[in-house]
Amino acid sequence: MSAAGDGAPDAGRLRPPALGLLLAEARGLLEFNASLLLSPLLMRAPRGDGHPVLALPGFLASDLSMAPLRRYLSELGYEAHAWRMGRNLGGLARMREALRVRLAEIHAASGRKVSLVGWSLGGVYARDLALQAPEMVRNVVTLGSPFANDVRATNATALYEMMSGERVEDMAELRAAIAGELPVPATSIYSRTDGIVNWRTCLLQPSERAENIEVHLASHIGLGVNPAALWAVADRLAQPEGEFWPFDRGGPFAIAYAPQDRAVSV
Fold first, then answer.
1. What does residue 56 show for φ and ψ, rounded to 5 degrees?
2. Phi then psi for 262, rounded to 5 degrees?
3. Do 68 and 32 contact (CB within 8 A), yes or no?
4. Which site in 10, 165, 194, 232 is 20 to 30 Å from 76, CA atoms measured?
5. Dihedrals phi, psi of 215, to nearest 5 degrees
6. How far is the C-alpha of 219 from the C-alpha of 100, rounded, in Å?
7. Which residues share a beta bridge with 213?
8. Which 3 state secondary structure label does DSSP give 126?
9. What is the CA radius of gyration of the chain?
10. Does Hydrolase appear among the keywords (predicted)?
11. Are the beta carbons of 27 and 222 closer than 8 angstroms?
12. For residue 29, what are the contacts with CB-CB under 8 A and spacing of at least 6?
């Protein structure tokens, strides 16, 4: 049985994370500092093959929030790109065309398929882009992205609706497609201690080319700079184009990952 206030299902609906988890989001700074201290270990991750990666920020965030991730991926040999659209004020329908244009620019300039790494709402955008333009997308990795189940179960839903002018209940068909199987390899990285997003809304349906990776004790705000999450992103992006294999939960950050068979348990 789930503990009270952990965002467990109630009469078929999910709840946002409890206040205690929300207040604990301040530990994101500690996760960033940990990545700086553990940078020698992080640089032991598999090297990239130079293909382009587009980093998509979360709700209310900008390219600055993704700068550490882009820098890390660049040092590993990837061609890391910012989204260049200012602060992410939300609006899935409103942003679709601009995002596709940005993806097409990178694809045309490099002549290669683009991997997409999206944090929170940025991950929802990434999954939608993969549905729109699979011929331009190589891989999708999401970080704490609420795309499945009851996507209202976040502590940012009301603010999102106010800022974007969109209601979460709208576009039911599009939301169902984003939650479904993608035509490209996909990985969802999440944490049960996320204080913004109910972790169950981050779970994709595992398949031969789709996988969930749970990071212990990570915050939502810190997930994009958490050392174990960064390692997992680098590992997933290093897979050859058109190939997919399960994430190896060994290595220097093994203690930070939940076992694979726990990933979708409630």
1. -110, 120
2. -95, -10
3. yes
4. 194
5. -105, 120
6. 29
7. 189
8. helix
9. 17
10. yes
11. yes
12. 222
pLDDT at 265 over 60: no
Q: Phi and psi of 169, rounded to 5°?
A: -70, -20
Q: How far is CA 263 from CA 52, 162, 258, in A?
A: 29, 33, 7
User: What domains appear along the chain, each with residue ranges and CATH number?
Assistant: 19-262 (3.40.50.1820)
Please give the Cα distance from 11 to 265 (Å, whole number). Answer: 18
Q: 118 by DSSP, 3-state: which?
A: strand
pLDDT tens figures, 86-114: 999 999 999 999 999 999 999 999 999 99
CB 231 within 8 A of CB 252: yes
- Phi/psi zone of residue 117: left (φ > 0), alpha (ψ -120 to 50 degrees), beta? beta
| Residue 9 pLDDT | 46
CA distance 173 to 139: 23
Left if phi > 0, otherwise alpha if psi is -120 to 50, otherwise beta: which for 157?
A: alpha
Hey, what are 161's tokens? 């609706």
Residue type for 195, please?
G
Structure tokens at 191: 């944490």
Residues near 108 by beta carbon (within 8 Å), at least 6 away in sequence: none
Task: Determine contact, residues 141/224, Cβ cutoff 8 Å.
Answer: no
What separation in angstroms does the CA of 176 have from each of 150, 171, 252?
11, 9, 37
- Residue found by looking up tokens 């207040």 in the block: 23
Sign of the C-alpha dihedral, residues 85, 88, 94, 97?
positive
Total residue length of the chain: 266
Instruction: Compute how many other C-beta atoms are within 10 angstroms of the C-beta atom of residue 119.
Output: 29
Q: What is the distance in angstroms between the CA of the first residue and the CA of the last residue of the chain?
A: 9
What percent of the chain has a predicted confidence (pLDDT) above 90? 89
